[in-house]
Amino acid sequence: MEHRNNVIIRKAKKDDMYQVCQLIKELAIHEKCEQECVMTPEILIADGFASPDPPFKMFVADVNGQIVGYSAYFNGYRTNTGNFIFLQDLFVSLQYRNEGIGKKLFQSVAKVASKTASKRLELHCLSWNPSLEFYLKMGFRNTTEINGWNYLIIDGDNLSKHVE
Questions:
Q1: For residue 82, is pLDDT > 90?
Q2: What is each CA distance from 148 to 76, 87, 93, 142, 151, in whole angstroms?
Q3: Cα separation of 32 and 28, whole Å?
Q4: Dihedral angle at the C-alpha atoms of 34, 23, 10, 140, nearest 10 degrees?
Q5: 146 located within any domain
Q6: 73: which strand partners?
Q7: CATH code at position 54
Q8: Structural domain includes residue 2
Q9: Are 55 and 45 in contact (CB under 8 A)?
Q10: Residue 147 has pLDDT above 90, yes or no
Q11: Where in this chain does the record put each N-acetyltransferase domain (predicted)?
């Protein structure tokens, strides 16, 4: 448990993206979607740091210069509630779990979400992922069970055939 005392949660920097990309690949393996993961540090740097309004923002968990976790989020908008924050990823490397690092990363994003007009934070979680219990303990409601929401994706050739 010595890691807990050394962890620093901070905004991500360009130089962190090399280590973050490794964690993203670790997450993809955990979520059984490794073949879909095409992310590179260069893409993360270009997307996250080359514009004044990047499409994502990120906090990292730094233990003595090693990035051991991250939370990636972006701004969303719902026509019925307004602005909100979408938590794309919250991931802590296996050997650093159960030390409160995930909770600290979550709290950093929660602070951002509390400043939006709707004071709302949303995320998707695989039904078999043990993290679902963590999110429910944090106070999330499972709208799949409550409202029957389905999460749908269209991409690649299926999307292209709808473009004139």
A1: no
A2: 20, 20, 32, 9, 10
A3: 6
A4: 50
A5: yes
A6: 57, 87
A7: 3.40.630.30
A8: no
A9: no
A10: no
A11: 7-157
Domain count, the chain: 1
Domain that residue 140 falls in = 7-161
Residue type, 101: I
pLDDT digits (tens, 9 = 90+) for 104-122: 999 999 999 998 877 899 9
Q: What pLDDT is attached to residue 1? A: 46
As a whole number of angstroms, the distance between CA 77 and CA 164 comes to 27
Q: Phi first, then psi: give them for residue 2, nearest 5 degrees.
A: -65, -20
Q: Which of 49, 140, 58, 39 is nearest to 105 (CA)?
A: 58
Q: Identify whether 100 is part of a domain.
A: yes
pLDDT at 4: 60
Q: Is 50 exposed, middle or buried (0-12, 13-18, 19+ CB in 10 A)?
A: exposed
The residue type at 141: R
